[in-house]
Structures are given as structure tokens and as C-alpha cells.
Amino acid sequence: MSRFIRRRNRDRSRGQSLVEFALVLLPFLVILMGIIDLGRGIYTYNGVAEAARELARVTATHMCDAAPCTLGTSTETANVRSTQNSLVPGLAGATAVVTYTCTDLKDTTVTTLPCPSGDFVKVTVSVPFQVLTPVLSMVAPSTLGSTTHVEIP
Length: 153
Known about the structure:
Blueprint: H1 2-61, H2 75-87, E1 97-103, E2 120-128, E3 143-151
Antiparallel strand pairs: 1-2, 2-3
């Protein structure tokens, strides 16, 4: 009789372990997905910031190729943009936005192109970002953006 009671208690403890595991698994997976989303967000934001810096740097030295100058249309800028499109998630998509502006020291837009020496090239990069974790989608930003100013030599 005592063997039967011990076996029944052991079977109950296995069932209890299964229920406890099921209760802990869901919060664990939500936390794990949140950590993965946070890592994706940091990676994407870092890529966006680096893309803005690289595009501003190359645009400041190579503004335009043609006579009616349009900022950011040089071959060198296009090459850097192509490289950044392959590195930054979402930058090659249709909803990604990259703007080039010539500004002065007070961040006022300068309309004369090519930009005069001593002014700044302002590049703003914005890409869409969507989290995987349902809870984080309520607080996470839907776009990640960065702005960089580089002085024109």
C-alpha cells in the first residue's frame, strides 16, 4: 500500500511541475522577445545614425556633379547611400526618408547652392521600425531617425 501512495504523490508532483512550467513560460518568452526587440532597435538606431554621419561627410566634400546643383546628387553620395542601404535595415525601403539641407551656424537653411565654405550640410535619415513584441508596440517608436551636421571645408 505504501508503494502505491508514493507513486501517486510522485505523479502529482510531475503534474504540478508541468503546470508551473506552463505558467512561467509565457512571461519568460515575452521578456525574451522584448530583449530581442530592444537589441534590434539599438542596432537599427545605430545604423541610422551612422548612415546620417557618412552621408553628411561625403556630401560636405562632394556636393553635386551637374551645373544646376542639387544637394546630395553626386556620384560619391549615391555610392555611400547604396552601401548604407545594404547595411541599415529599412533604409532601402520606400518609406525611408533621407533629406539634405545646407544650413548656416544658426541652423537656418541656406538657399544658395553649392553651399558656401564654412556652412553646414544637414542630413536627416528616418526609417520605419516595427517591434515584434505586442506589449512593446504600445510604447516603441514607429520610426527611428537621426540628424547630422557636417561643416563644409
